[in-house]
Each structure stands twice: as C-alpha cells, then as structure tokens.
Design goal:
- This protein is α+β, with helices and mostly antiparallel strands.
- About 45% of the residues lie in helices and about 15% in strands.
- The protein has a domain at about 10-90: Double Stranded RNA Binding Domain.
- The protein is built from 4 helices and 4 strands, in the order E-H-E-H-E-E-H-H.
- It has a 4-stranded antiparallel beta sheet.
- The longest helix has 24 residues, at about 105-130.
- The radius of gyration is 27 Å and the shape is elongated.
Length: about 130
C-alpha cells in the first residue's frame, strides 16, 4: 500500500460524550481529511474508481472525511482514523468483477419445464375434484 501520510490533513476538536472533566479541556477528537482530486499519489483512473465506489463517504469537493473520538487520547484517535482511511481506500480501489452471462444447459431447461408441467397437472387435478 502506498504511503499517503504527506497528503492527509488532521484537525482536532473537543470530543463529546463521557470522559469526565477530560472532555471539557482536551482536544481528543480527530478528523482526517483527504482530497482525492489534489492527490499526487493516485492515478486518474484510481481517483475515478474511488469517486464511484465510496461516493457515500465523500463530502463536498471530493474530500474523504473520517472522524474518531472513541479513545481518550488524541494519538490513539489519530491511529484509528489512519486505519479506517486505509481500509476505505482498499475497499474503494477494489475493482468489481464483470459478470459473464452463461447459457442454461439443455438438461436444466428440460428439468425446469418438467417441473412446470407437474405443477400444472397438480392444479388441474384439484380443479377437477371441486
């Protein structure tokens, strides 16, 4: 995997939630931002692939935003953001396999038609009884 550390931007803020007095005075919430268009590491093909595969994770102007505030320290939250980022990139750069159409075998076709005929016969028998 490529090293994106030079292109990642981090922002910190005070975290919400329960951590006691630590919440009110220490900025432990970490926000990672990565601009897809300004990346020198990704090729144009990879950029387009990312934009289509993870479009629900992209905010305005093709920026990927990942937030972590689960830990009590800024460093741990930063590490979590980086791990999430690389997992997201891995998922986004994976090419989907193209489905190849296959023909139904003659045996399978005959079996299906036979089952349809049996079902039809059953229903006709029930109609005759009533």
């Amino acid at each position: 995997m490529k090293d994106f550390s030079a292109e990642l931007k981090f922002f910190t803020s005070r975290s919400s939630g329960s951590c006691g007095q630590n919440v009110n005075k220490v900025e432990t919430k970490v926000e990672l931002r990565f601009n897809i268009d300004e990346s020198n590491i990704l090729s144009d093909e990879e950029k387009e692939l990312l934009k289509t595969n993870i479009k629900n994770k992209i905010i305005q102007e093709n920026i990927i935003q990942i937030i972590s505030q689960s830990e009590r320290t800024q460093l741990k939250n930063k590490e979590i953001c980086i791990k999430k980022f690389y997992k997201l990139l891995e998922k986004g750069l994976k090419k989907t396999k193209i489905r190849k159409k296959t023909k139904l075998s003659a045996e399978a076709k005959a079996k299906r038609l036979e089952q349809k005929k049996q079902t039809s016969d059953k229903k006709n028998q029930k109609k005759k009884r009533l």
